[in-house]
Design goal:
This protein is 23% helix and 26% strand. With 364 residues, the protein is an alpha+beta fold. It has one domain: Thiol Ester Dehydrase, Chain A (Roll). It has an 11-stranded mixed beta sheet. Helix 4 packs antiparallel against helix 6. The longest helix has 18 residues. The two termini are 37 Å apart.
Amino acid sequence: MRGFRALRAASKAHTAASRSRRFSSTAELRKADPQAVADAFLSKFANGQIFTRSQLLDANQLRLFSLTLDRPNLWPGSKIASSHLEEAEPVAGTPIPPAYHWIYFTPAQLPGILGLDGTDASFNPNAPFTRRMWAGGSVEWPGADPSSSQNHYLQVGDTVTETTKLLSCVPKVMKDGNAMLLVGVEKQYHDSKGNLCLLDRRNWVFREALDPSKPAPIPKKPSELSQAELDSRDKGSVVREYNRDELQLFRMSALTFNGHRIHYDKPWATEVEGHRNIVVHGPLNLIAMLDLWRDETVNRRLGKGRDEIIYPRKVDYRATSPVYAGEPYRVLMSADGAAQKETELKVVSNDNTTCMKGTVSSWQ
């Protein structure tokens, strides 16, 4: 088991080497064998190496995050955490809502170790595959089993240990014929007593780095559906509407210490990466799906505790298309989804693009 000091040293050496090759020709970079890069990456984290760090889950960070999400109460209706967050921090012992753990154990690198696009390069493969994109994953809450006599949640005021290990690195060929690497990472979170509270598997796609000196074409925005078309499409679903602005995305980046420039640097997002605007963070869409599920579960008085603390057993999710600032979109769940053992949720833009798909499994 290794600490993050060793990982930082390896990352610093890797980043220095990558920067020294940054001005190599595109043709030279394309000679890189994806399988060889994947093998080298797996070798770097061979033998199941586990990296650990511990952190106090402080109340103010959670308070600011929930307010950023426009949720003044962490657990609406709950006797445990009913205080309005504009007036007071959550008290010690308050459980962390599903997927809100993203605001803890944030990247901790010096500026020179970050990638050219601002991303944390701790688990980056070698050049040219350094352009990271978030693809999806799964999250489980083994400590929330209602059949257990004692539950184990991530809680405000507890000192939690995160362990991280590399699971896989597989070369793939995209539809456009270019190569990419699909990387899987697993994070476990244990409370101060050693209980496993949360299991988080994340999948990242690494594509070839872009050349900032070569402007990228910006895709044309599709036409949005009319209100009548949206209502017809979503009939029979529970609907929650969003339209994220730059201020909310800035606060999200700040609270998660996420330096990825596509979320706040519009010239980079549009001119270098070819997006229409800055991009909504993937975890925001995952949390929107989970918040809808738990709100409906509470509203329908389902599950253990009813209006108390509700967690799913697991969520599997996959990001399929970007969501952009200033563009409306909806989170959809079937009307009876909260009562099902498994329910599908979707994030769908008003131009009818499916941006994320998820399956929430309950404890029922």
